[in-house]
Amino acid sequence: MENPVAPSAFSNSSDSLEAPIAIGTSISSSSFSPVISFAKIGCVIQLAALQAEVDLLLTNPWIDHVNKQDYRGGWDVLPLRCQRQHLHAHPILQGFAIADGDDWENLPVMLQCKEIQRLFNQLQCPIKAARLMRLKAGAEIKPHRDHELSLEFGEARLHVPIHTSDTVSFIVDNKLIPMRAGELWYFNADQTHEVYNRSNEDRINLVIDCTVNDWLREKILSGAVHE
Question: What is the pTM of this model?
């Protein structure tokens, strides 16, 4: 699961920055509007610089994902941002611990991440957890849900593919997200999703959890179309 803070843990971009949003058929109990499965968010990302920055972090200690029953093959995490109480704790707590609260802080490794910081500065919403997630060549993340982690519940999970290929499939609610390297995407983690890396190279995504505010809601909702 693309979710190191989910309840089950411990319990070049395209020409257009804005793209149509895939919408499911279920109905939000709070607004009675169609539930969005995924959306591309306009953002300026210097992909080559970002890739070079992440490549320098490959020698850092990455942590195997703790939810071993939810994937097959290799899947590990490099925490970038965590709750303040875990700043000096074990990396497992930095990468996977969950708790209520808004007291989140960058880890020291972020001092090496100028391009990621530039991306953070473009997000006009509260940022909670952030991490790099590497799905090894040939690995897969099994179908699962991260309950109540979506726009409708006030939480948004964002992805930026950094190293990826056309043979990586990210599927949400039986729909393929057309993610390409250097793009910023929201996806509805409350819906069933799965990921397959059928390439011969590791896939690395930047994953950011945010609190939904008016700015982010508008970014996700804008350009929505029914399938």
Answer: 0.84
Q: Which residue has the higher pLDDT, 109 or 20?
A: 109
The lowest-confidence range among 23-32, 62-71, 98-107 is: 23-32
Helix axes 114-122, 47-56, angle to 10 degrees: 130
Task: Judge residue 57's burial from the number of C-beta atoms within 10 Å of its C-beta, 0-12 exposed, 13-18 middle, 19 or more buried.
Answer: middle
Backbone angles phi, psi at 168, to 5 degrees: -95, 125
**Cα 200–chain centre separation:** 22
Q: Is the dihedral of CA 27, 174, 76, 159 positive or negative?
A: negative
User: pLDDT by residue (tens digit) across 108-136?
Assistant: 999 999 999 999 999 999 999 999 999 99
Phi, psi of 52 (to 5 degrees): -65, -40
d(CA 21, CA 227): 9
Give the C-alpha separation, 216 to 210, whole Å: 9
Tens of pLDDT along 95-107? 877 666 678 999 9
CA angle 193–199–202, rounded 5-degree value: 80
